[in-house]
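tmp note - Fatty acid-binding protein DegV
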Amino acid sequence: MKNSIALLVDSGVDLPKDISNQAGIYEVPLNIIYKDATYIDNVTITSDEIYARLDTEIPSTSLPDGNAIHAIVEQILADGYTQAIVLTISTGLSGTYNALKLNLEHFPQLETAMIDTKNITMGAALQGVYAKELIDSGLDLATIEERLIANIPNAKVYFSLPTLEYLKKGGRIGLVSSVIGQALNLHPVISCNEEGVYHTVTKARGRKRSLEKMIQDAEKFVASSTLYDIGVAHSNCPEDAKALMATIKERLPHSNIFLFDQVTPALGVHVGPDGVGFAIMKRD
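out:
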């Protein structure tokens, strides 16, 4: 073990498996609730299974339960860690941050720094990757916390959905008008605002134009930056996501890290199928 600092995230942070499986990274899963059973996000149910069942039932999601949190924290301690960066999806979208904070009070022997990413999926994942880099660099907990908090405004997520039905039914509509996507084939470009709540960045008629609007806004966001990380995510539309990835690599060529993944089942519940988007995080 290189140092005594672990990284604890929730499954909504959406770290790709090749990253979340690294030593020193621990993940607390959200829960997915159907009428007949409860499943563990990305453990006992897959994204494909979620989408296959949406026509018959739209499940709900819930916070990680206390027993699951306690088991993971006990594992962190058993593995020899005495400190942890705890990084979660936005408090404006989920109570996961508070659930972890409350449960961690039972473990005073683990010193923690709580980070609310004000983001979700790849917007949070890129911050998780950065957190792991800082940990591996050997910095102390206070310095890592300071840098992560300062970095939060540097990350921005965008996604385009063919319907807002799932966000609305899941109670995650935020500041996005639930009627936008139904009229005139308008696809809103959705992001998280400074408080970490969904809002509409812009809107366009059709998928192709909405993706172009996303890229244009990202180009303005990075401005003169010549170093940034990018992550592309999708909900059951990998070919659209691959096409978006190719375009982004042409238009935003200065990426330091490039992630690609399908969103977790819990996030898939809220966005529904055929959603595509990306996040960008400035590094200079």
